[in-house]
Amino acid sequence: MSTRTLIRGGLVITAADEIYADVLIDDGRIAALAAHGTSAADSWTADRVIDATGKYVIPGGVDAHTHMELPFGGTSASDTFETGTRAAAWGGTTTIVDFAVQSVGRSLREGLDAWYAKADGNCAVDYAFHMILSDVNESSLKEMDLLVEEGVTSFKLFMAYPGVFYSDDGQILRAMQRSASNGGLIMMHAENGIAIDVLVEQALARGETDPRYHGEVRKVLLEAEATHRAIQLARVAGAPLYVVHVSAEEAVAELAAARDKGLNVFGETCPQYLFLSTDNLAEPDFEGAKYVCSTPLRPKEHQAALWRGLRTNDLQVVSTDHCPFCFSGQKELGRGDFSKIPNGLPGVENRMDLLHQAVVDGRISRRRWIEIACATPARMFGLHPKKGTLAPGADADVVIYDPHTEQTLSAETHHMNVDYSAYEGRTVTGQVETVLSRGEVVIDRRVFTGRAGHGVYTPRSTCQYLN
Question: What is the rounded distance in angstroms from the CA atom of residue 19 to the CA atom of residue 415?
């Protein structure tokens, strides 16, 4: 039996508008919005009324880059689909797009089915999949067409990690040519992995084994070079390109130059690059291992370029690249050899709050907050208009957000299945109060009321920004 819910009196914020409006939800979808206090809004009745006076009413976040249960470096990401999607809900994110992995020598289908099995019946919020291509050949290229038809419309390739996920330029070109014909979007991890491996080997030979050297060998120029190369290959193929986890000023400049030419090139950054730096990687007593991820954290001066890119739309999306490994027993695998530290940071619960702090600090507007965290990822990956906005017909993924409450981020209070917080002790202004996923309350005034299995798999259309 469907429940009608009415959210009254809040400031409704979307990527396009801010208006004091009441929101009527029926049968899991947004039924109507009307300005608060008008006769239309006052005439509505509902089974449940939520008072949002003094609060923001925003679309649920769309995190388009997560890695739940990802095998990496001899271990696996510590969040399952159950724990990770529960933490996402706590942080105001109501849809994740995770990465299914093709193993070398295996089919895309086998990898995708393995990820369907991991997630099925376990998710607290809705989910979709990208496909990691680890083995580009005639068979996997043909399979790309079938996946696009099935609603898996984006494919990630790696210029990094030789021997694991790495694709050479020829393989990348062939995958891009295929995506140009089937409508898929190529996502690129842009770092020159062949050159980085040489620098890793040389650093270890010099006895440079601490976590900070992870950042030093993965040079800014090798991110910029790979970004440039990926853009040129995409131009040759006539394909769109989405560059993931952009971390450095020089890489942003490559994206900006391509976009100035009118190319369909897009860029994503992550909270860790906006709020953390090589200072964290250099923390003593191996604490820096907590901050090892790739692309790596950069010197603080790169942050200004990333914020500027978000304001000028040279960067369009902020995702988390959530890939948590516990410090104890997982990050510690790299004691004495930084190259053995599992790469990844926890963050799916923190993204919406950190970006709201950027609003408080005057770095971005409220509408831009919703644009980069909800609306654009939904459009980029074919989830709009179901996700990422508050409009009649959209899924009722709604967050009641208290913009005034102060909170301190900490492993003591977060819900991610990891033994540390990358933002330990950081105070931010703003907190998720209540979260609805398809009309069902999953966080009720800071109490989790959701359940594993509520979240459903959501097939996607193709990228909605392609001209």
Answer: 32
